[in-house]
Amino acid sequence: MPSYTAPTKDLQYVLHDVLNVSASDIPGYDELEPDFTSAIFEEAGKISSEVLAPLNIVGDTEGCRLENGVVRVPTGFQDAFNQMREGGWPGLDMPEDFGGQNMPYVVGTAVGEMFSAANQAFTMYQGLTHGAASAILAHGTDAQKATFLPNMVSCQWTGTMNLTEPHCGTDLGLMRTKAEPQGDGSYKLTGQKIFISSGEHEMAENIIHLVLAKIPGGPEGIKGVSLFIVPKFLVNADGSLGERNGVSCGKLEEKMGIHGNSTCVMNYDGAEGYLLGEEHKGMRAMFTMMNEARLGVGMQGLSQAEAAYQNALIYAKDRLQGRDVTGAKNPDGPADPLIVHPDVRRMLMDQKSFVEGARAFILWGATLIDQAHRKSDKDADGLVSLMTPVIKGFLTDEGYDMTVQAQQVYGGHGYIEEWGMSQFTRDARIAMIYEGANGVQALDLVGRKLAQDGGKHVMAFFNLVKEFCSENKDVEGMEPFVEPLKTASKHLQAAGMYFMQQGMKNPNHALAGSTDFMHLFGHVCLGLMWARMARASIEALENGTSDAAFHETKLATGRYYMARRLPATAMHLARIESGADPVMALDAEAF
Amino acid sequence: MPSYTAPTKDLQYVLHDVLNVSASDIPGYDELEPDFTSAIFEEAGKISSEVLAPLNIVGDTEGCRLENGVVRVPTGFQDAFNQMREGGWPGLDMPEDFGGQNMPYVVGTAVGEMFSAANQAFTMYQGLTHGAASAILAHGTDAQKATFLPNMVSCQWTGTMNLTEPHCGTDLGLMRTKAEPQGDGSYKLTGQKIFISSGEHEMAENIIHLVLAKIPGGPEGIKGVSLFIVPKFLVNADGSLGERNGVSCGKLEEKMGIHGNSTCVMNYDGAEGYLLGEEHKGMRAMFTMMNEARLGVGMQGLSQAEAAYQNALIYAKDRLQGRDVTGAKNPDGPADPLIVHPDVRRMLMDQKSFVEGARAFILWGATLIDQAHRKSDKDADGLVSLMTPVIKGFLTDEGYDMTVQAQQVYGGHGYIEEWGMSQFTRDARIAMIYEGANGVQALDLVGRKLAQDGGKHVMAFFNLVKEFCSENKDVEGMEPFVEPLKTASKHLQAAGMYFMQQGMKNPNHALAGSTDFMHLFGHVCLGLMWARMARASIEALENGTSDAAFHETKLATGRYYMARRLPATAMHLARIESGADPVMALDAEAF
């Protein structure tokens, strides 16, 4: 069975050595001293390794079962969910007013990585609750907040998001679910939603569905979509649970992975619902959830890659097969461990350099969110909004590839379910699809985010890279970082320029290169993170750190990323600059 | 449920327009007139689409079951297997002396693509039989051939290959299975083999296991390995079946995919076996099987990509979602089909250009095998031997990626098992692992094949590309093919040069770039195939073909490959030229 060890040391390194959080003037960050975050991470790491990780393969093997309308979760899930609630983990970064601990988002993100790495399917129950609670927090009335948030923050009640219908996913304007006003402020919802994660289960007393639907007579298409709160059990005025509402799970989907999470077809048969936010402004309210969810999904890409990598590394050190061509490393044994072989090393270094770079990227993104929310910093908000599709799309594409590579390290055993490597791959696969398929992320990036606020945020990003490079160009040891980063950043700028010039003539010149652009952008971001980590480690070494080996390893891992992964940017640029013609040459009928 | 349509037209195009097989002087090729191969392909296509494809998802869902030592195959498999036998398909390219039809290997390969695309797990039962029969044909005594081949050629009996043991896969020198001589020419085999595809099942009267084992007292390691024929039922002198032999299935593995094929732990408890080939030369004999099997596995990469692509294309034309940004294409409908979107196009074009290029590559390889076998042409043998790891490693890595992309076209439905797209991905995953994991293919390519016969074969490959480019550089319409091919080929040569120069100093400089080299080589091969197809289609158009649309589509698809996929070669070269240092910088303990 695979194991999971929480990367608490590396999380500490990113927060304190690289991002220097406790020196930040973001409200709440002054508390984030190393000892304080270390205590939280150790605790979260413990529950991740000891409680959640052992249930991962159980969830995969047993899956969920629908019995007379009730969804049974895998053995052990209920106990673990109770432990999560008792530990107060679901409310870690939620407001104290509703029972949370009001920690910065960056702390919730670091902890979330561990939970998700240990057991993605399980962690989704509370992850979706967090997203739904955030939407109510942002758009709910005081009464709605008082009614729903305390129980959602504690995960006594869980939450869901209901967007997709059988005939519409990305194109939500085609939606058919109706919400008819009842004259008393409430609505009756009728329709069917599919792919509803955690849609029904037995672990919580109540489930609060956030549902997109159309109010009859409203505007056509996406402009006529509103968001509703639809509880599984109606809530009485005194807060106690009332009648069962007209919402039920019609079917559980059989999926490639995340078997431990219940993916439901939800039927709304005149279910009572309450408008969340304004009429016909449902997409705006939903995007509060979606943006948070997209960062969370990007984190799943990282977390599955991390869990898979940890096990591939153990196997590569343990499994004896073949000899080091430069001389036996285990001369007394029958063979050398796999890790001596350069091609196995390549796979491990790909994974290691991705995981550590992605961790820094996501945590940096989380500090920007804190800066946006806690300091109302619009520039930070714009920058993280620009990078959100990159975090979601690039990290899940790459994270998936890394799980495939980790599986490959195991050879034949990687294909056998009991070794657990297949599950990391199968679970990681969904992250490329849900919360907006990665092609939609690329479209969001190129079609919307690049030009947002007159292109101000992407310019800010370029300046940030430029300033970093000019500040560090003469620092000893930084050359293997600064030069490749400059080159990669130039490729990104050239791609942006190509889109501006050619996209005016034909938007397809931009759209045909959107996925390549997202990946190009992702590599520049990870290159920047590695350069920042290199700088931090060089400083630590100069300051006579007691842990020189750790920092030397960081530098070597970073040099690998710059030398071996960053050359991808030139390829992406070449593809982008080939324009729309090769892509769009054929009529649909010619395929 | 996914469907499968046999690509008979495209197979005909490659054989006749591109490879011009019936004009070849390879013995047996004169028969391969278009009408003749068309009749075969139509028949094979029919059984693929109508019999094998509908059983694909059945095999995945039901899997195999071990009941009291007997393996039950999925519903419908036995009937389909009988139909395959009745049609004479298993012996298509086997000698007439043993009941085969003696067709060229290229015909068997074309037909094999269809069977494998329709149902990989099912087709493995006969594919492994073919491989085992080929080994007996090449290394068996006349008596062994007479005893085993007629029933194996007809698939009355099936075959297996037994290499892996729990503690050894790639490093077969660690093998523990023993074969003790009985003094009567037979041996008693004792040991355990794992990952034995088709190891036990109820569809054949007998199963002929080819088993690697060590004769006690022989040389240490890989030099002391011999190959044995171990039948499930002993065969009496009159050819009838005798006693059950001491070999049994101890366990069926639960795998990520190919559920319809029985992957067995095989226990040998003093089983009677007969030496195949010479004592201690088992690896040589086994490689007859392995090389054929590696081409077959490369074909699985192509075939799963083809099957997945066909369904992604249907979905992309059918599913209405969003609008073409350049103007509605389906203005009377609620939305446009997915295929209007450039990023969806990109995915479809990646798949289409891979599949058609890979098909040409494999069929070209098959003609080289025919040339080697039927004309005893050592140069052809050397060239296909050089390309075998590329066919296996590159086509299965890329083929897998294409199934992932096809799944992505489906959005959320791609993750739901009933739509069948997950199965293509899960089934395709094994091809990167078995018959030598792709890292081992890369090692074989760089560590052995490049330098074989003094580097003669790789020089022959470069000359072939060079000659093609100089012959075609002034042909109208060939510029978008010749220029990128030249550049890519230069990258490949530069990489080879780097290996020669740096590998002398430290072999790790070559090995650390082996997988990148395999991919670089693969892109050059597919680039060459596209250039050859372009030339063939330009000629067809000049000659006033009645099917101009088909040839225009070929040219557009080829231009896509050259513009969008071939730029990967520069990235692979950059990675290779960064050498071993970034890869090997860390001590194993530092990870």
Automatic annotation (TrEMBL), chains A, B:
Keywords assigned: FAD, Flavoprotein, Oxidoreductase
Pfam families: Acyl-CoA_dh_1, Acyl-CoA_dh_C, Acyl-CoA_dh_M, Acyl-CoA_dh_N
Required co-factors: FAD
Signal peptide annotation: none
Residue intervals of the Acyl-CoA dehydrogenase/oxidase C-terminal domain: 281-444
Molecular function as annotated in GO: flavin adenine dinucleotide binding; oxidoreductase activity, acting on the CH-CH group of donors
Reactions accelerated catalytically: 3-(methylsulfanyl)propanoyl-CoA + oxidized [electron-transfer flavoprotein] + H(+) = 3-(methylsulfanyl)acryloyl-CoA + reduced [electron-transfer flavoprotein]
Domain Acyl-CoA oxidase/dehydrogenase middle: 161-269
Acetyl-CoA dehydrogenase-like C-terminal domain sequence ranges: 461-587
Lineage: superkingdom: Bacteria
EC numbers: 1.3.99.41
Enzyme class: oxidoreductase
UniProt cross-references to InterPro entries, sorted A to Z: Acyl-CoA_dh-like_C_dom (IPR025878), Acyl-CoA_Oxase/DH_mid-dom (IPR006091), Acyl-CoA_Oxase/DH_mid-dom_sf (IPR046373), AcylCo_DH-like_C (IPR036250), AcylCo_DH/oxidase_C (IPR009075), AcylCoA_DH/ox_N (IPR013786), AcylCoA_DH/ox_N_sf (IPR037069), AcylCoA_DH/oxidase_NM_dom_sf (IPR009100)
PANTHER family listed in its UniProt record: ACYL-COA DEHYDROGENASE (PTHR42803), BROAD-SPECIFICITY LINEAR ACYL-COA DEHYDROGENASE FADE5 (PTHR42803:SF1)
Family the UniProt entry places it in: Belongs to the acyl-CoA dehydrogenase family.
Protein name per UniProt: 3-methylmercaptopropionyl-CoA dehydrogenase
